[in-house]
Specification:
Elements: H1 4-14, H2 24-38, E1 43-48, E2 61-66, H3 69-79, H4 95-100
Antiparallel strand pairs: 1-2
Length: 131
């Protein structure tokens, strides 16, 4: 399965298919199959058989979700010698090295006190009963 995309491309090339656009749906499935086979750990495949808008019309949706942030950050930590993570919301600071699977050289947290109360916006919408 990991070579599905390359094998399909090789097959289309061997058969000397000129109009590859006709096979774009098949190419998309092969690409997705390669992703599923390549990224097994830390990923989840979710299948929704019906769209939310119309549950009576079958229109399945297949999605691949990355559930492990360390997979996404690993290439960054491998490529660069120094990486600086900054944020106003990285708290507690000791949790992120565990989640992202890296060993920090320096950790520094600053206590920040705002001179006034912060505004906390809240979004309120109407429900189906218009309340």
């Amino acid at each position: 399965m990991k070579a599905c995309k390359e094998r399909l491309a090789s097959l289309l090339n061997t058969l000397e298919i000129e109009n590859i656009v006709e096979y774009s749906s098949l190419n998309l499935i092969a690409d997705f199959s390669t992703l599923i086979a390549t990224y097994y750990n830390g990923f989840s495949m979710i299948i929704e058989p019906f769209p939310e808008e119309n549950i009576h019309t079958p229109d399945p949706l297949l999605q691949l979700y990355c559930l492990d942030a360390s997979i996404a950050t690993k290439p960054i930590f491998e490529k660069f010698k120094n990486v600086i993570l900054t944020s106003g919301t990285i708290s507690p600071i000791d949790m992120y090295p565990k989640i992202l699977n890296f060993e920090p050289k320096i950790k520094k947290a600053f206590d920040i006190r705002l001179p006034r109360n912060s505004i906390s916006p809240m979004i309120v919408t109407k429900g189906t009963d218009q309340i």
